[in-house]
Every structure is written in structure tokens, then in C-alpha cells.
Amino acid sequence: MQTPSKILDNAVEQLSSLPGIGKRSALRLALNLLQRNEKEIHEFANAIIDLKLNVFNCEECGNISDHAKCDICLNPNRDSEVICVIEDIRDIIAVESTGAFKGKYHVLGGVISPMDGIGPNELNIQPLIDKVSQGHVKEIIFALSPTMEGDTTNFYLFKKLKGFSTLITTLSRGVSVGSELHYADEMSLGRSITQRQEYNQE
Fold it and tell me: Distance between CA atoms of 136 and 14, rounded to whole angstroms?
């Protein structure tokens, strides 16, 4: 798809590189931006630059944050002895929206997926093991998506953690098998958290 402007073509090319954005959608977005005034465009561009340069991973849990530690880790009212293990930031947003969890998180940054070339070494696993080994964690909650990759990751983590005295639990199956956690409705996800069960490796 070519337009009368090489500059517009380049904008379409960049926008279509985003996930879920095809060429036609990218063209529509680019034309919308073209109609905006200079101040709006500068604000838009600065927001993207700010996103890249000034959003960090929390040094404690791996969540994204504007500072070295995220607000959840800094909150003294959160239970630091209960850690919910999740795949990425979208799952933190989903769990937080339920209001059912008052502990802290550990972000793996993905799940084990040999087909995609993702093994345990590519994930944020060792810091979790280090936290548990220090003896200050009473419960680990596996809150990964109930997919084959999520179940594989749960089993791997269980093998690494079962030697410690920490209770290991998992979400009840209120979340549909095969679906991704962040797509679950708030009521089902909240129920799955409050009715969590001890992890069974069978």
C-alpha cells in the first residue's frame, strides 16, 4: 500500500509494526494523527518517548514502574509473605482489578515454551527461588494461564520449590482451561484466587 507521501508511508509502516495493527488500520491512524495540531502531536510523541525511557521493571518483583520499586512492593499494607506468580504485567492488572489479592507479585516475564525457544533460563525464575530460600515466604500462588505452557511452567516451579516449607497453591479452575489469565472476567478470576487450592502435581 503506497500513498502520495513517502513520509506518510513511513508512518504507516511504523504503526503497522505494532501487534494487531494491519496496513489499513495503520493508514487510518496515521491520517488521524495528520489532522491533529502540532501541540497534540508533540504530546503524543513525548508520551511514547517517555514510555520507553522512564518506565522500569521493579527491582523487587519485575512489575513495571516509574521508579526502582513499584507501588505494590512499597505498600506496607501488602502481605510480603504471600507471593502470586504471574506471567506479565497484564496479569497483575487483571488480578488487581478483582480486589481479591492483598499479597505481592513475582513476574516471570513469560512461560516455558520450547516451541518458541523459551526455556527456564529465559524467565525470571531464580530470584523467586532466592526469595523462598530466605524463609520469609509462607505461600506461593501459581497464577499462570491454564494452558499447556502455563501448566508446564507450574510443574517446573513446583519441582524447584517443593524442598522448602512454603505452601504452594494454584488458582481454582474458575478460569477456563486453555484461556489466558488476563482475559478472564473479574468475578471468575476473583473467585479463583479466594478459592485457590494446594498445588497437585498429578
Answer: 46
3-state SS class at 160: helix
In the block, cell 514510555 appears at 51
At residue 157, the pLDDT reads 96
| Domains parsed from the chain with CATH numbers | 6-54 (1.10.8.420), 76-198 (3.40.1360.10)
Residues near 170 by beta carbon (within 8 Å), at least 6 away in sequence: 141, 142, 143, 154, 196, 197, 198, 199
Q: State phi, psi for 52 to the nearest 5 degrees.
A: -75, -40
pTM of the model: 0.84
As a whole number, mean pLDDT of residues 178-186 equals 61
Percent with pLDDT over 90 in the chain: 76
